[in-house]
């Protein structure tokens, strides 16, 4: 049995798994395939011969009209990815609602239909790429999570030493270029080994977590608070002179010392010694800044602990 080519073409257009519709230069619909009918709920009889905007007034009229007009003028294909514009039509999708998308994500192709070297209409295809978009979003979220974990201390959840030093290096470079103020505080918990020896490492870990949480709640959003290792912590204070940094140091010291940590019915008293240093002419690198803050910290310990000392 011989089937006319035109009939086969019409059948393919009707049955393909993506949307196809054709527009003239005035945005009137000339063709509307089964995919478009199934997802819009509108038959070809309802749509063909009318402006596309009659039934879809929510379409991005300016953007879409420019896209169609460019195809008429240039006679070349145009494309729009879901990453640039998530969807053209607000069609429902069949993916789980946990995917985080409200409507079908769509890639759109705009193809010139030529007759005697003149564009007489534009064929638009709509591809459902919802699954691809969900997978890509999940991948991006997973990568972001991994990056976040890579930057965080596993015990306390604050910045780890690697991330802290990277931020300090960047901030020090900014200070070298633009000047201003920048300070660093180093502090550690006094006699922490005794806490571990007397109460056990589990209690010691709880003390570290509680202390980190308390300090994190009193520092500014623009500051970087990190664990330097063991019971030692660091705080980067951009745009902060040493005098103001030492006021922050006292606030941190009091935050730690004022309330013992209660663990398993036991109150564990905790204090901290703090050392501070600030960037200034003659400090050749951020490493030197850390060393100066560390020297001030050990000076605080030599003076009896539970105090804050500035590097002079």
What key phrases describe this protein's structure?
312 residues, alpha+beta, Beta-Lactamase, Alpha-Beta Plaits, five-stranded mixed sheet, PAS
Structural summary, described in words:
GO terms for molecular function: diguanylate cyclase activity. It catalyses: 2 GTP = 3',3'-c-di-GMP + 2 diphosphate. This is diguanylate cyclase. It is an enzyme of class 2 (transferase). With 312 residues, this protein is of the alpha+beta class. The protein has two domains: 5-136, PAS domain (Beta-Lactamase, 2-Layer Sandwich), CATH 3.30.450.20; 152-310, Reverse transcriptase/Diguanylate cyclase domain (Alpha-Beta Plaits, 2-Layer Sandwich), CATH 3.30.70. The protein is built from eleven helices and twelve strands. The strands form three sheets. It has a five-stranded antiparallel β-sheet with strand order 2-1-5-4-3. A five-stranded mixed β-sheet has the order 7-8-6-11-12, with helices on both faces. Strands 9-10 form a two-stranded antiparallel ribbon. β7 (224-229) and β8 (232-238) form a beta hairpin. α8 (192-199) packs across α9 (201-216). 31% of the residues are buried. The model has no long low-confidence stretch (mean pLDDT 90).
Range of strand content: 15-25%
- N-end to C-end Cα span: 99 Å
- Strand and helix order: HEEHHHHEEEHHEHHEEHEEEHE
Low confidence ranges: none
CATH top level of the largest domain is Alpha Beta
Q: What value does the average pLDDT take?
A: 90
The assigned structural class equals alpha+beta
- Name given to the CATH homologous superfamily of the largest domain: Reverse transcriptase/Diguanylate cyclase domain
């Amino acid at each position: 049995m011989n089937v006319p080519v035109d009939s086969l073409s019409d059948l393919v257009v009707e049955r393909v798994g993506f949307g196809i519709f054709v527009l003239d230069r005035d945005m009137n619909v000339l063709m509307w395939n089964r995919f478009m009918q199934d997802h819009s709920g509108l038959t070809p009889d309802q749509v063909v011969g009318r402006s596309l905007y009659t039934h879809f007034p929510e379409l991005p009229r300016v953007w879409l009209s420019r896209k169609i007009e460019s195809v008429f003028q240039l006679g070349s294909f145009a494309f729009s990815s879901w990453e640039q514009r998530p969807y053209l039509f607000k069609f429902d999708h069949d993916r789980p609602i946990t995917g985080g998308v409200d409507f079908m994500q769509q890639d759109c192709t705009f193809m010139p239909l030529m007759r005697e070297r003149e564009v007489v209409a534009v064929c638009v295809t709509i591809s459902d790429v919802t699954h691809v978009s969900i997978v890509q979003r999940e991948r991006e979220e997973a990568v972001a999570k991994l990056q976040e974990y890579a930057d965080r201390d596993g015990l306390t959840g604050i910045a780890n030493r690697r991330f802290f030093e990277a931020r300090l290096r960047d901030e020090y470079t900014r200070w070298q270029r633009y000047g201003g103020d920048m300070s660093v505080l180093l502090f550690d918990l006094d006699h922490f080994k005794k806490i571990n020896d007397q109460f056990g490492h589990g209690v010691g870990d709880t003390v570290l977590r509680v202390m980190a949480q308390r300090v994190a709640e009193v520092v500014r959003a623009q500051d970087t608070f990190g664990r330097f290792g063991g019971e030692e912590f660091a705080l980067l204070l951009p745009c902060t002179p040493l005098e103001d940094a030492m006021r922050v140091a006292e606030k941190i010291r009091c935050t730690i010392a004022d309330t013992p940590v209660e663990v398993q019915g036991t109150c564990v008293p905790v204090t901290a010694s703090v050392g501070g240093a600030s960037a200034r002419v003659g400090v050749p690198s951020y490493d030197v800044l850390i060393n100066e803050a560390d020297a001030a910290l050990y000076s605080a310990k030599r003076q009896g602990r539970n105090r804050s000392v500035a590097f002079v």
